Amino acid sequence: MTAHNQPESQAASAAEQDRGKFHRRPITPAEAQRRIAGYVRPAETEQVRLEEAGGRFLAQTVTAPHPYPHFRRSGMDGYAIIADDLLEASSDHMIWLEVVDNIPCGYTPSVSIQSGQASRIMTGAMVPDGADVVVMLEMTETRVEQERTWVGIKRQVEAGRNITPIGLEVKEGDTLLEQGACIGAGEISVLATFGVHTVTVYRRPQVAVFSTGTELLSVDEPIEPGKIRNSNSLMLAEQIRAAGGEPHLLGAVEDDLELARTMMMNALAKYDLVVSSGGVSVGDYDVMGDLVRSGEVEMLFNKISMRPGSVTTGAVKDGKLLFALSGNPGACFVGCELLVRPTIRQMMNSTHDYLPEWTAQLGRDYSKINSFTRYVRGHVSVENGQVIAYPALLDESNVMVTIKDSDCLIVIPPTTEPMPAGTPVSILKLAVQ
Ligand SMILES: Nc1nc2c(c(=O)[nH]1)N[C@H]1C(S)=C(S)[C@@H](COP(=O)(O)OP(=O)(O)OC[C@H]3O[C@@H](n4cnc5c(N)ncnc54)[C@H](O)[C@@H]3O)O[C@H]1N2
Ligand code: MOO
Ligand SMILES: [Mg+2]
């Protein structure tokens, strides 16, 4: 359908429809986030092998079944002895102790140490009872006499040296990892250490992604006048993956209410979360805006006092959330980072659901004034110990190319004055690969 062959019945009610489109009540970004959070349902859980758990979110709290280390551990290759045996040692007075055992890693000592004795011991091996210090091999010399081995030491050593006590890192019963922790290399090391070889994690939220726009070509199609390739769907899929969700690319539909309705309803029925791009503003073919207002879904908001993405729309149907993001790539990107990413992470109980907020100095003047909060894409650098955030030179909602150069969103509060370089600003750090 083109603007020129619009049916008459539609034209007749255009004025009424327009009123519904225009009179949107903006809510703050924080209020939009709060409303969404009220509808987040936790994802189901599943068991995965530890080697496949990277990037997943723990659905169990893990406590330590034993202390770590669980035996007194030597930190050096050397001799386990009693520190008091060296009280008389000095550079001109070598103390000789009899070597009564040799303890490699993985073995238990065969004897306890008595005064006058030493056990040769390796790094990581179990320190024998009685010994309270391990003297490094380099500080010793040995001699063998009548098949008995002696170790000589010329220095005093303080008790406890080179012995890691039981439970130094972790006491039995300590909380190791909280539910909702994202499993990275450090977490895997902890879980492996304590024998957790299968982990209960949240299922990745299954997120449907589709775009609306008669102008959209798929990525493999040649360009045509008036048409563009559908970059938002793939961009969103990557953002969703990075947030911990599993994207499902459903393609694009033309700006047709029925096609969009079918796509949206099918997506809502099949997936945990639905994210669309395009068609949420006030244009004649902005079908997602119309759909959400139609009452078929419960609208949570259709205007947020932010730029880009002021027309970002949120809705819920049968307990499932729908995000109708703006078609403009910049607004689509920001809407996903501010609203979709936290939702995915909240579904997996993440304590780090929202983008981390830092304080920085504005790196160059920012002259656009607005009554809405702006989330300006930018990049951070540290200069003379100060975090500086440089706004992208092209940051309009419809600009695509500078998204890739950004590692933060600079928060410019509503203002009537241009903001000079050096002004303290909040920035939201983007998780850059
Ligand atoms: N009269 C008004 N016009 C507009 C307003 C307004 O308040 N009054 N708001 C503007 C703002 S702000 C934004 S943001 C956009 C929102 O547009 P829509 O969400 O309705 O998106 P579309 O109209 O479908 O497309 C906008 C733009 O984005 C391109 N696009 C769409 N989908 C994709 C995609 N999948 N990949 C790449 N690019 C895409 C599309 O071709 C358009 O250029 O409305 C303003 N207008
Ligand atoms: O949604 Mo538009 O991006 O407010 O600029
Ligand atoms: Mg539009």
From TrEMBL:
Gene3D superfamilies: MoaB/Mog-like domain (3.40.980.10), MoeA, C-terminal, domain IV (2.40.340.10), Molybdopterin biosynthesis moea protein, domain 2 (3.90.105.10), Molybdopterin biosynthesis moea protein, domain 3 (2.170.190.11). This is Molybdopterin molybdenumtransferase. The keyword Magnesium applies. Its EC number is 2.10.1.1. Residues 1-35 are annotated as: Disordered. Pathway: Cofactor biosynthesis; molybdopterin biosynthesis. It is an enzyme of class 2 (transferase). CDD domains: MoeA. GO terms for cellular component: cytosol. Catalyzes the insertion of molybdate into adenylated molybdopterin with the concomitant release of AMP. It catalyses: adenylyl-molybdopterin + molybdate = Mo-molybdopterin + AMP + H(+). It comes from Paenibacillus bovis. It comes from the Bacteria. GO terms for molecular function: metal ion binding; molybdopterin molybdotransferase activity. Residues 208-346 form the MoaB/Mog domain.
